[in-house]
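Handout, section B. The chain below has 199 residues.
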Amino acid sequence: MTNGGKSTLSKSLHQRIPNSCLIAQDSYFKDYSVVPVDSNGFKQYDMLDALHMDTMMCEVDSWRRDPLSFMRQRGLYPEHTTSSADEMVYVLIVEGFLIFNHRPLNELFYKRYFMEIPYDVCKTRRSLRVYTPPDPPGYFDGHVWPMYLKNRQEMESMVSGIVFLDGLKPKEELLAAVYKDVCQEIEKLREKDFYLFPL
């Protein structure tokens, strides 16, 4: 959900988890000129057609093929957290508002987390952020919130195993809970080569 705290939590996890990479869906928006417009004249940013999902999938696939090279291309260098290089674990954190609605991407995830906040908090947070281009009058109620409800309903009909997080809780508390959960899963599955943890 928009302004739920996904980016903040994802960046904090990336900083805490050794050998992790972060891919953010917001980096794959199409140019303003090609984003569809609805009957009310609102740009349809809250739908998969507004995103270069093919490019995002290529990035994810690149990490899956060779996480070490992926890290190095981004100026990141692995931390040797075990005595054996064969036991090194690489984690990909995928953050975005429609990552569960894109089936080819969703099918890759090992763990799924969903940040949620109430309507009034979401609207207030959205109004305090600066967007380029800026939200037109009535955009939140006329497009953003209805699309969130539609996308969430679609997500819940096709995805199971989501851990819902209360976005009103303190950032430190959310980080501690998810970090602990991810670390426990890494320990259980250390023999595997990679994991994807979306937010």
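Note. The mean pLDDT is 91. Compare this with the example in section A.
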